[in-house]
Amino acid sequence: MGIYKMTDRNFISLLDSISSDRELFVPTNDQEETSYKRWDNLGSSAVHFPKYRLNTPVKTFFFPPKESVSRFPSGDFKPERDKRAIFGLKQCDLASLEVLDQIFLDDEIIDPFYATRRQDTLLISSDCYETLDTCFCNKVEGQPFPKDGFDLNLIKLPGEEDLLVEIAGESSLGKEVYEANQELFDPAPENLLEKLSSSRRSMEEQLDENNDFFEIPEDVGNISPKHPVWRGVAEDCVECGACTMICPTCHCFQLYEQTEDSTVNRGKVWDSCSFEGYSRVAGGANPMESLESRVRNRFYDKFGRFYENHDFYGCTGCGRCIESCMGEIDMRDVLKEVSVANQS
Hints:
Helix content: 25-40%
């Protein structure tokens, strides 16, 4: 639908309007950590415009770490419909939802819990106007600003009091919000649009400069699990699973059952390919028993297998895994080594 101008005061009014119909989550600063909080528990001054992505992956809103999925023999266990809105998402967050959609909204097998949350959630993204040293979205076909996948995109340009609001033309939710609050939107002046283009170019140039030391290699899966590349990474890995838990696209889970009186409750909980028991099957066989093979599996899944199946990477370049790794493993350094190994 286009880009509009909005004052700070009108933006707060817009959040108030959205929260009257939805459970709204916004970024706030709490003890030097930016995290999502419910809007109705905050004052308007607590709303924070994040310069870059939050540490919390957006998958927690749609694919929670633990949830109940069925109960026997008491009948169907259906997901609750709860209208929500999330403000502060970045391009890498939106890209992660594209990955999860491929997994949980497949034509043949649909996860009803994920589908319900996706359908009922308004996505309010924002541009990045700073980059972290660990960001590399530009290497996985991304950029430091949203192009699609959002309903509304909020842009707070450095040095400007007014905001820019982009409404996705294909978004029925975005159009619905605009039509209900038209008095809050004004035409965007040409000087702000020019400054927006300049700001976005600057962020892209910064990312290119930060990540000019590596490229995403082809044929990651061609390198044997016994190759020294994986052995070197395995020596530093402590198998904590932090990289997969904080990753916005990792989606492995396991089902478990608990009995209470005569009722059996089935739950779903996140799993990680970093764990030794991840691929263990009945009888004790384990096709990925070695840590080297599990390390390779993670890289092959992100940059090989997923691309082969869906024509885009299973990694969004958010860099969360780099920051969280206790072994100080930088995925980009590993990919650089893989590229060298491919050429040898």
